[in-house]
Model the fold of this input.
Amino acid sequence: MIFSGASDATRAPWRDMRHVRRLAPVAVVVGALLAAMAAFVAAGGYSPAAAFAALWSGSVGSWYAFTSATLVRAVPLMLAGGAVAVAFRAGVFNIGAEGQLLVGAAAAAAVALALPMLGPVAIILSLLAGAAAGALWAGVAAILRTRFGVLEVISTIMLNFVALHTVSLLVRGPLQEPTHVYPQTATLVERVQLAHVPGAGRLHIGIFIAIGILLGCGWIFRHTASGFRLLAVGESATAAEIAGQIDVVRTMRQAFVASGALAGLAGAVEVLGVTYALYENISPGYGYTAIAVALLAKLDPWRVLLSALLFAALEAGAGAMQRDAGVPSSVVTIIEAILILVVIGVQALRARESPVISSHDPARAAE
Amino acid sequence: MNAQHAATASNIVPAFELSRIDKRFGFVDALQDVSLVVRAGTVHALLGENGAGKTTLMHIAYGMVNADAGTVRVAGSTVRLAAPLDAITAGIGMVHQHFTLVPTMTVAENLALGGRGRLSRGTMDASARSIADRLGFSLDPNIVSGELSVGAQQRAEIAKALSRDATILILDEPTAVLAPGEIDELLRWLRGYVAQGNAAILITHKLREAVTVADDVTVLRRGRVVFAGPVAATSVESLTRAMIGTTATTSPDEPIRPAPVGVTEVVRADHITVTDREGQVRLRDATFRVRAGELVGIAGVEGAGQRELLRALAGRARVSVGSLSRPTRVGFVPEDRHRDAVLLNRSLTENVALEGAGRRRGWMDWGGLRARTSALMQRFDVRAIGPHTAMRDLSGGNQQKLVLARELAFSGGEQHPLLVVENPTRGLDVRATGAIHEYLRHACATGAAVVMYSSDLDELLSLASRVLVVFGGRVHEATNDRESIGRAMLGLPNTT
Done:
C-alpha cells in the first residue's frame, strides 16, 4: 500500500513517532469501548463481569460460538462492508446497502424457489440474480445522481424503505409459502442451499465467497487501472477529470453498480446459506452495520475482513449477553455506535495534529 | 474606532503590531521571534519565499492560528485573537489568497454572512450596494458568487473583509489572479483606503508591486525577519537578496525565438468556436497556428475566453464549430493546482499515475511508475523524501514542479509534442518560478510547442515567442510589446 510520509528532513522526527502514533488510537478505541460498555452495563444494574463473560463465550469463547455465531454473521457484514467500501472509495456515499441486500435476497430466493431441480446451477443463478438485483437497485440511485443531480445519501436511504416494503409485499403475495399462513417464502430445498463447512457448525461456504471477493476487491484497488480510477475520483473528481482525463460519471456509475452488486450478493448468500427462506426481518440491519464496518476498515477491502469479524463478534456476543446475563443487546448497539464515533474522532484528531492549517493550501501554510 | 482617532494616534502608536511571535508545528519552527509594525495610513508589504512563514503569520494576525508566544496589539492595546471573530471585532479584515465565498450564495448573501439578528433580502442588497459604493467597486449584489469572474470574486472578498468596518486590511497575494489594469485599479484603491487613516498589509511575491505601492516592508526568510524598514531605504535588488538569501541569479529574460515558417505545425486551429457548459459561446471563430519549438503566450483579462481556448487545445473542452488539429496527447498544467491537477492526499507516484489514467487499461505498473516518479523528481529537482511522500507534504513550488514534470514527459521518457500551461507560476516564489521557466524553455529547445496563459504580462513577455490576445472571445495576434498587448487585452485600438 502506498502511504504518506513527511516531506523533508526537518520533519523527519514525525516518521520515528509514526508507529507509536498508529498504535495509540487502537489502544484508545479498545480502552474506551471496554469502559463505556462496563459503564452502560453497570448503569443498567447488571454485573459487568457476567456480561463480559457472556459476550466472550458467545462470540469467540468456543469453536462453536466462533464458527456458528461470529463467522456466520461475519459473512453478510464482509460483503456489505465491501459494498460500502467500494462506493465510499469513489466518493459515492451509498448508504443503501441494506436495501440492496434485501432486493438481492428476494431475487435469490425467487430464483432458487423457481429452479429447485437445477441444484448447484440454481445456486449460481441465484447468487447472480441477487447481485444483479442489488446492482439494479443501486443503479437507480446512480442514474438519479449522475443524470439529475439527486444526492445518493437521500436516494439510497429512501430506496431502503422501498426495498423493505417490497419484500414485505412479496412474502405476502407472489412469493408466500403455499399454505399462505406465514409472511415468508417456502423453505429452500437442500439441493439449492449453500453447503456447510465441515466441522464448523452452521458456517456455510458463503464465507469463502465473501473472503474471495474482498481479497479480489482489495487487489483490484491496488493493482488495476479501474481501481485506481475509483480512488482518484473519490479523492478529487475535478483532478480526476482534468489531470487524469477520467470519465467521472462513468466511474461513479461503476462504483454504484459494483457496490450494489456486492450488497445484493450479501443478501443472496444469507438466504441460500443461513435463512433458507425470505422473510421481512431477514437482515438485522447488516446494511447499516456495514457502513460502520467499512469506516473502521478505512475503506480498504482487506481490512474489511477484520472489521467485519469484530462487528460480527460483538453482535454474536450481544445475543449471548442477553440470553445468559440478561443484559439487553441494545447495549452492544450503543457500543457499536460509540466505536464509530471514537474512530471518527480519533481520525479527526490525527488530522488536526498534522501540521496543516488551511484546507486550501496546506503545503504553504505548513511551512 | 474612527479614522480621525486613528490618524491622531498614528504618530505615537502603530495601528497594528505583532510582537515577538513564535509558532511551532510539531517539530518545525514556522515562526521565530517575528515582529511586525504597521503604521496607520500606510501599506506594509510582507515579502518572503513560499514557506517563509508569511501566511502563517497572517493567520495568526487574523486569529486562525494561535501563536505559541508573542502579542498582538491593535492601536496600542493588546488583543487576544483566539478566532477570526476576535480579529474582526478588533477591526482586522483579511482577503485570502484562495477565495472564501460560498459559491452558491449571492454576493449580498456572502456579505451578510456572520451578521446577527433578522435578515431580509432588501437590507442585504442595500447594505451590499452601500459597501460597494463606499469602496468604489462595481459589484452586482444579486449575482451568485460562483458565476463571478476571478477579478469580481476578489472585489467581493474585499467588500466582505471591509463590510464590518475593518481599519486593518490584510491581503494575501491579491494580484496573483488579476489582469494588469485590474492590478493598477486595486493598488490605487488600496492607497485611497490607507489615505483615510487605515492600514494595510500586502503579502506579495511581486517585488516591483511592493516597491511601488508600499510604504514599509518586512521580509521573512525561514520563519525569521531578515529585513524591516521603509521602502524608500531599499531597492528591488536588496529585497531580492534578503528574500532568497543570495544574490538572485536573474535568468536571461530573453523570449524564446519564434519558430521559422516551415517548421512542423503542432496545432492548426481553423475558425474554432468553443462553448462552455451552460452553452454560452466563450471563444468565437479563432484561427491560429502553433509550431514546434515555440512558446505562444496567451493574454487576456479574466473571462475573455482564454480559459476555454486553453482547455480546447488541451483536449479538455469540446470544439463545437471549426476544425482543430492537435496531438492526441497533450500535457496540461491547469491554473488551480489543488482542484484540477493533484490528489493532495495521495503519494507522488499516484499523482504521476494520474496522467492518462482515463486511457489506461489493465494493471497498474506501480514499480515502473515509482521508478518514473523518482526519475522525474531527480530531473526536475522536486524536493521530497521519496515517491511515497504525500502530495500535501510538498511546498507549492515542488508540487508545481512535479505537475509540470508529469505533463511534460510521456511515460516512455519522450516529450509530449504540445504542452498547455495556465498561470504556471501563480503563487510560487522567485526560485520556483525561475525553475519552472527554465523547464518551459528547455521543453521548447527540445522541440515541444508550449502554449502558456499568464495573468502576469511581464512573465508572458519574458518567455513568449509571440503573443495571442483574447478579448471578448476573439483571438488576435499581437506585437510583442507591453503597451499594445495591454491595449488589446482591454479591446482598445492600437495607437501606433
Observations:
- Chain A touches chain B through 46 residues (CB under 8 Å).
- Chain A has 15 helices and no strands.
- The first helix of chain A runs from residue 12 to 16.
- The radius of gyration of chain A is 22 Å.
